[in-house]
Amino acid sequence: MDRRYRSEIALLAVAALVGLGCGVESAAPQPLVVLANDSFRFEPDTLTVQSNRPVRIALKNTGALGHDLTIVGMPSTEIRSSQAHPGTPQNAVSAHVGPKQEGSLIFTPTAQGTYEFYCAEPGHKEAGMKGTLQVS
Ligand SMILES: [Cu+2]
């Protein structure tokens, strides 16, 4: 491989990265509001978003217990959380909210699929605190 060919590849790589960055920044976020309560339910418990567009979930805890919204195994970039739950797995998207608090969870899902979300507080998922995120 000669030097000129190599620099053309480098230029193409840079152009691809810049293109991706612009695409993410110019896309309008998909705003969602999810309520968490002490009946161990999310409202709504079914969410639908588009892939490769940023998602912003406002998580409102209407209860007197701490709750969170955790999604494990969903390919995502640009992940930002107001407060991750302590002990959240590394491949998780998660936001924790204290009683009567509101938090935010921002991410860009990169793969279509159906993903489970749940509350990672001990016993909450088992009590039914879970839902489904559809990425189309
Ligand atoms: Cu909970």
How would you describe this protein?
Strand 1 and strand 2 form a beta hairpin. By secondary structure, this protein is α+β, with helices and mostly antiparallel strands. The radius of gyration is 18 Å and the shape is globular. It has a single domain, classed as Cupredoxins -  blue copper proteins (Immunoglobulin-like), CATH 2.60.40.420. Helices cover 18% and strands 43% of the residues. It has one helix and ten strands; from the N terminus they run αββββββββββ. The strands form two sheets. It has a five-stranded mixed β-sheet, with no helix packed on it. It has a five-stranded mixed β-sheet with strand order 3-10-9-5-7, with no helix packed on it. Copper (II) ion binds next to loops. Copper (II) ion (CU) binds next to loops.
Concise summary:
The protein has one helix at 3-26; strands at 30-36, 42-43, 46-49, 55-61, 67-72, 76-81, 92-97, 102-109, 113-118, 130-135.
Number of strands: 10
Ranges where pLDDT stays below 50 over 5 or more residues in a row are 9-19, 21-26
CATH class: Mainly Beta
CATH superfamily: Cupredoxins -  blue copper proteins
Helix content: 10-25%
Give me some keywords for this one.
43% strand, binds copper (II) ion, five-stranded mixed beta sheet, alpha+beta, 1 helix, Immunoglobulin-like, 10 strands, 136 residues
Give the SSE layout.
Elements: H1 3-26, E1 30-36, E2 42-43, E3 46-49, E4 55-61, E5 67-72, E6 76-81, E7 92-97, E8 102-109, E9 113-118, E10 130-135
Parallel strand pairs: 1-4, 3-10
Antiparallel strand pairs: 1-2, 4-8, 5-7, 5-9, 6-8, 9-10
